[in-house]
Amino acid sequence: MDPEALGPDTLDRAFMALADPVRRAIVARLSRGDATVNELAEPFAITKQAVSKHIQVLEHAGLVTRSRDAQRRPVHLDPVALEQLTAWIDEYRLIAEGRFRKLDQLLATGIPGADQESTTSQRKRN
Fold it and tell me: Do the Cβ atoms of 13 and 60 come closer than 8 Å?
């Protein structure tokens, strides 16, 4: 999907959701596979209800989904949503890299007239 198709609200919700270290840890855990709220709550010293609220924030941001498998309600990471965020970031990273490449080329070739200016400045001092 085109990174520009992401609206500012979508980006805001996703980045605000990822701003919290617990939610980032949940996303990291889900990158290894689906998990239930109980499984996601294990490494944290917070209640299952608090973990469930974190999952709701991630759901609202479109980063995770839940399904029902009999009594089990696994949480799934949405790789498409993460890819969209990555594409949005990459767009600006590529622009910045292009600017750095141009600067590197300019520095490698030297600034036209820079040698003449420094020679002229030295002559005026003498």
Answer: yes
Residue by residue, DSSP assigns 68-119 as -BTTB--EEE-HHHHHHHHHHHHHHHHHHHHHHHHHHHHHHH--TTHHHHHH
**Residue linked to tokens 């002229």:** 120
CA distances from 107 to 52, 97, 103, 114, 121 (A): 53, 15, 6, 11, 21
Amino acid letter at 56? Q
User: pTM for this one?
Assistant: 0.72
CA–CA separation, 6 and 57 (whole Å): 18
Cβ pair 41, 55 in contact under 8 A: no
- Whole-number Å distance between alpha carbons of 1 and 7: 12
Task: Report the C-alpha gap between 57 and 17 in whole angstroms.
Answer: 6
Radius of gyration of the chain (CA): 25
Distance from the first to the final alpha carbon of the chain: 64
Please report, rounded to a whole number, the percentage of residues in the chain having pLDDT higher than 70: 83
